[in-house]
Amino acid sequence: MTQPIKTVQLPEGVAPARINDLVNAAHQNAISKGWWDEDRSFGEIIALIHSEASEALEDFRVGKQPDEVWYENGDKPCGIPSELADIVIRVLDAAGRYGIDLESIIAEKMAYNATRPVRHGGKVL
């Protein structure tokens, strides 16, 4: 069942960030924290994205709910939502590294997906 999205109220006059603004912010933060002092292989980047997905799965396997957030040491957000955010942040960083216009390709891919038949591909989990 689909749950309503919990939204954060932005201050008046503040627009939500565009995807490519998030790409630049995530990539610049990674650079400033030393994550690009040595170049990484594309395989390593994908493995790091995958590791965040595995952490979300582990939280679920130990009984955490998909919308459950808790804080370690009072300030570090933990839980499946946090791991999903980490996946997105790593994808944004990768897009920044490779100069990918993620905003345009997401719009293009969503438009294409809207044309696909119901449950296309027929694959099962």
UniProtKB/TrEMBL annotation:
<protein>
    <recommendedName>
        <fullName>MazG-like nucleotide pyrophosphohydrolase</fullName>
    </recommendedName>
</protein>
